[in-house]
Design goal:
The chain is of the alpha+beta class and 321 residues long. It folds into two domains: 166 residues, no CATH class; 97 residues, Glutaredoxin (3-Layer(aba) Sandwich), CATH 3.40.30. Strands 1, 2, 3, 4, 5, 6, 7, 8 and 9 form a nine-stranded antiparallel β-sheet that branches. The chain has a four-stranded mixed β-sheet with strand order 11-10-14-15, covered by helices on one side. The longest helix has 31 residues.
């Protein structure tokens, strides 16, 4: 009789642990699953991306696994990072999903407080595995006693599929300086502006191709393959450089080192360092035009009339002949 009692007692304990384990497993599955399948809006990602704190549009829920992976990756990207000292939000939702070639999906996600917006490339095909992420818009403001920091990022999607991200940051100290301390305005106000251009490469990752500082300048880089200099190069470029100098457009002539071109003014002060190789790949000769806040543009070498026309159009010099 004692053995029978012991047997049933052990059986009761085993059954209890079995159901407890099943409950724990089911609980973990339920925590990751949404109450019911969510159908995300399918749409083309807009050409202009910016945050609106008053936006009350629908944000569709995401799974805990997706959110965990996204939070882990959110600050791991190429390019200038957030300057404002602020924590990344923990609550996010989906705005829409764009279908990509080979089954990939490009998700537009936004924080519930509407301050942050990201593009997320996923493997698609019924999965939510994240391949890469890119922050495309923020609207941040932090005040600490007498110091106010603001940061605003906006993104323009070009016709070729690239994304140009404009990043603006400002730091202001509200206490007015005394007459004796009015020496350096940077003690009370600082700002910086950066433009970055990204493409989606053949691996379906966001690749930073261009980064321009906020220094205001206009420049033309004339380039050619050292071994394949066009026959009319010297004559045409000499006239184009004369026109640029007349209009205050900086110019340089190079035949190599495309990944690190130093932009200098007429006093040989370095204004910027740029990588123009994405615009010169596969080309023998031409010019790359650069302007603060604008995407660089390449023009293959051709007639003087065509090239000067492109310079006038890019720098909006049409009314200044």
């Amino acid at each position: 009789m004692k053995r029978i009692y012991t047997f049933f007692a052990l059986l009761s304990i085993i059954i209890t642990f079995f159901f407890a384990g099943c409950h724990s497993k089911n609980k973990n599955v339920q925590e990751n699953m949404l109450p019911e399948p969510v159908e995300y809006p399918i749409a083309i990602i807009p050409d202009e991306l910016k945050t609106d704190l008053a936006d009350n549009g629908t944000l569709y829920p995401i799974t805990n696994d997706f959110l965990r992976d996204f939070i882990h990756r959110a600050l791991d990207f190429n390019g200038q990072h957030i300057s404002v000292h602020i924590d990344l939000p923990q609550e996010w939702g989906v705005v829409c999903v764009e279908y990509r070639p080979e089954g990939r999906e490009l998700w537009l996600v936004q924080s519930q407080n509407r301050e942050w917006m990201y593009l997320v490339m996923t493997s698609g095909m019924g999965t939510q595995r994240i391949l890469d992420i890119l922050p495309v818009a923020v609207n941040l403001s932090v005040q600490d006693q007498d110091i106010l920091e603001t940061e605003i990022w906006t993104t323009h999607r070009d016709a070729d599929g690239s994304f140009m991200v404009q990043k603006e940051y400002e730091w202001i100290k509200s206490i007015a300086p005394t007459r004796d301390s009015l020496v350096n305005i940077s003690d009370f106000q600082r700002s910086k502006s950066i433009v970055e251009v990204y493409i989606i490469n053949e691996m379906d990752r966001f690749e930073l191709t261009t980064q321009l500082s906020g220094i205001d300048y206009q420049a033309v880089i004339f380039y050619y393959d050292q071994n394949l200099k066009p026959e009319e190069w010297d004559e045409n470029v000499m006239m184009l450089e004369s026109y640029c100098e007349e209009k205050g457009v900086i110019f340089q002539e190079i035949y190599g080192g495309y990944k690190n071109v130093k932009i200098t003014d007429y006093m040989l002060n370095v204004l910027d360092s740029v990588d123009i190789s994405p615009y010169t790949n596969g080309r023998i000769a031409g010019m790359v035009m650069l302007k603060s806040g604008e995407k660089p543009k390449n023009i293959d070498f051709g007639s003087y009339e065509r090239m000067i026309s492109e310079i006038r159009r890019y720098f909006k010099l049409l009314d200044r002949r």
